[in-house]
Amino acid sequence: MIEKIDRVAVFGGSWPKPGQAAYQEALELGRLLGTAGFTVLTGGYVGTMEAVSRGAAESNAHVIGVTCDEIERFRPTGPNAWVKEELRFTTLRARLMGIIEACDAAVALPGGVGTLTEVASMWNHRLVGAIAPRPLILVGSGWETIITTFFRTMHDYVPPEQRAWVSFTDNIQAAVELLVKLKGNRNDEH
After folding, report:
1. 18-42 pLDDT per residue, tens
2. How far are the Cα atoms of 15, 51, 58, 159 from residue 184, in angstroms, in the given order?
3. According to the CATH classification, is domain 7-184 in 3.40.50.450?
């Protein structure tokens, strides 16, 4: 059972740059989450992480950047300017678990291997009971194509109840609306 939804993690790629459509979408997602009253967690660096952090900060939301030493050795950079609180880890593995454990829900925008790892790790940790149930919302047709293909080709390995743990939305507005609805439902139960 979901206890609360206050902290929303956003997963997404590091390549989007200011002015690009993917960056603008992530910026708007941050604004929408901030306006809806959520604390926003990101990987804390560039691309989608920067855009979401910026949009949330500009909406006066609390922004938590989840960072690590291994990433900064790989790509010399520090947390983006919109991070208000840093959760710092030594390793990438610890960082991954840090963001998953610290959030009440997660939204995944398009991304690469790192984003896929975040989605699969959160889903798998729920499966084995390592984390409490929490919403995992995948935005865009790319995610739906990937995951439904996975369901279709690995049909016996992913039973219907596990498939239901992932939600798909066509756009960021629908993702935030779903989170707001789920947050309202949680508050009504307590």
Report:
1. 999 999 999 999 999 999 999 999 9
2. 34, 26, 24, 29
3. yes
